[in-house]
Protein: Polysaccharide deacetylase
Amino acid sequence: MSKEIFSKKRNSNKNNFFKIFLGVLAIILLLWGGIKVVTMIGNNLANKASINEEQAEQEKVIKPNPDDVMPGMNITYEADKYAVDAKDVQAMANDTYKGEGKYVFLTFDDGPSNSTEKILNTLKDKDVHGTFFVLGSSIEKDSKRQEYLKEELKSGNAIANHSYSHDFKKLYPGNKLNIDYFMDEFNKTNDIMQSILGGEFDCRVLRMPGGYGTRKYYKDPSLKEFDNTLQENGIINVDWNALDGDAEGKPYSTEEMLNYVKKTSKGKNHVVILMHDAAGKEKTVEILPQIIDYYKNEGYEFKVIKNTSKEENNSNQSANNKDKSSK
Structure:
C-alpha cells in the first residue's frame, strides 16, 4: 500500500514539474516572441521614418521654387499655370485659332524703361500678367533697366525678344529682311537676357519690329527662307490683333485709346493687344488700369506667352520635312 502511495506521489511530482517546465517555457517563448514583435515594430517604424525623411529630402530637391525659371523657358514655374504655347498664340493673333476659351494677352514692346516700373505696379495691383517684348539695347543702357527685366520675370510675366536695335535700316535694308543680321540681333538679345536672368532662361518667342504682317504686306522676298530659319531654331513670331494706338504716330486722348482697344478687339475671343512700355508712353501707363478692367468685365482670362516646347517644334519640323520629301 505504501509503495502505491509513494509511486503516486512520485508521478504527481513528475507531472507538476512537467507542468511547471511547460509554463516556464511558454513564458520564455511569449517573452521572446514579444521582444521579436517589438523589435520588428521598432525596425518598421525606423524604416518608415527613414523613408519619410528621404522622401522629404527628395521633395525639397524635386519641388522647385515657384519664382524659379523653368529650364529652357521664358517664364517661371508659377507663370506656367496661366501661360499659353506661342504656336497657339500665333494662331490667335492671326485669327486662325480654333480652340475655345476667352483669353487676352497684354503685350508690351520696346522696353524696359521708366514706364515699365509703373506698368509692373499696375499689373500687380490688378493681379494680372503680361508678356514683355524687350530690346537688347534698352536692357544694356543701365542697371536699373536690368532690374526691371528681373522683376518682370519674378512677378510672373513672360519675357520675349524684340531684336536688339529695332533699327529698320539694319534689319530690313532696302525694305528686305537681312536674315543673318536679324538672327545675330536675336541671339545677342537672348545672350544679354541670359546673363541677367541666368543660364536656365531661354527665349524662343519673337515679335519682329514692325510686325511679321508688315513684311508680308511688302512681299518681302526673304520671308520664306526666314520662316525656315525660325522653324529650325524653334522660334515662333507672335504679332497682334488689337492695339491701343500708342505707336500710331498721331496723338490720342486716353478715352480714344480705350475706344481703340474696344474697337480692334470687338467680337474676338482671343485677343493679343499691342502696347508699349518704351519711354514716353505715359498714356499707356495711364490707361492700362481701364484696359484691364474692360477685359475683366468682358469675362476674359489673362494669359502670357511661353516658348513652344522643343519636342513639339521638332515633331512639326519632321512633319514638314516629310511633306517636302513627298512632293
Notes: Confidence is low (pLDDT under 50) at residues 317-327.
